[in-house]
Amino acid sequence: MFANPHPDVVIIGGGILGCAIARYLSRQPGVSVTVIERHGLGEQTTSQAAALLTRIRPYRELTAMAMETFHAIDELGEQTGEPLPLRRVGSLQVAAESAGRQQIERTAARAADVGVVAERLDADTAQQRAPWLSLSGDTAALWLPDDGYIDPYSLCQAYAADARRRGVSFRLRQTVAELRQTGNRVTGVRLASGETVTAGLVIDAAGPWSTALARQVGVHLGMAPVRSHYWISAAHPAIPADGPMTILPDSGAYARPEVGGLLFGLRDPQAVTAHPGQLPASLQDFCFDQDPNGDAALEAGYHALRQQLPLVDELPLAHYVSNVSSYTPDGFYLLGAMPAVEGFMAATGCSGAGIGMSGGIGRLVAELASGQAPFVDPDRFRLDRFGSIDSYHPDFIHRCAEARARKRTG
């Protein structure tokens, strides 16, 4: 396929956000879009995600964006006649401590506000739904039957396939070496091959590599690479394949079935980070310098986890998956333009929510890029909201790590 050297929009990054944005932009008549990815689509951070999909989020904007992802999944399945592999197993939130109970109450109230089904359960009923749990009689539980999880690679590929059908060009295994700039306007990109691709708009959707790219044009993105990780146990008869996702605010953990075993993630009490300017070109076999096998994190979170999941004592661990997530200090994403830098937008900093928010982020960024009225207020996601920062400074990286450490849902 002929590569357009002068598209209207260049998207850097063929992960789930880049592909989702391309899919929504492809609906704009007369807009030519090229996605440039130095690996294959969805091969880096996207494919390693746990991919829990929940509709109800802490803020109205986030809830609307999460629900857009569910809408996109349904629509993509209808277009092809082959439903995407969304496991609609429901989500179960359980908590015995005060803070967790309050989180459940807030979730129930938000669900009622937007018309999402949410049912309060007693501890016995909750335990029947998720037999790997052991709950005290005073445990609060909330059941949301329409939540689920999905293979993130499949969703990424579905976004890309729809974008291709509508004319988007994908240039794979080609590296963006430089953002080209004239004055205060970004004019395109130079590839490692030496080729220049000019564009009216460049969207930096390169995940944890976005920071280094944006610094080339004087944009300091307010995020840092922070570890997210999970474990997968060997198969166990107490874990039904159709069991729900379980969200455990008391321990900052989550768990769901996976190939007969249990996949579970833990919050790092001391979050582990990497330097955003020193990431390798590929994350295959990448390990963080600190606690590279997750042993310290598992030991630190084990006691709290086993209070509600004592079965963990019986589960031989089969796999450990460590991923790089881009966290901002406030947990909101980085979406939109940077004032005083024309021709440039970013779509990154998804703070561990990239899969679940992909439809909403894709739609919002496409609307901002094409000058349409955004379907949610984009103000929370402004690139300049942290003021003057140095995205490479250890103090700022620490601020981002603290956001990960505060997260209570895994």
Automatic annotation (TrEMBL):
<dbReference type="InterPro" id="IPR036188">
    <property type="entry name" value="FAD/NAD-bd_sf"/>
</dbReference>
<keyword id="KW-0560">Oxidoreductase</keyword>
<dbReference type="Pfam" id="PF01266">
    <property type="entry name" value="DAO"/>
</dbReference>
<protein>
    <submittedName>
        <fullName>FAD-dependent oxidoreductase</fullName>
        <ecNumber>1.-.-.-</ecNumber>
    </submittedName>
</protein>
<dbReference type="InterPro" id="IPR006076">
    <property type="entry name" value="FAD-dep_OxRdtase"/>
</dbReference>
<dbReference type="GO" id="GO:0016491">
    <property type="term" value="F:oxidoreductase activity"/>
</dbReference>
<feature type="domain" description="FAD dependent oxidoreductase">
    <location>
        <begin position="8"/>
        <end position="368"/>
    </location>
</feature>
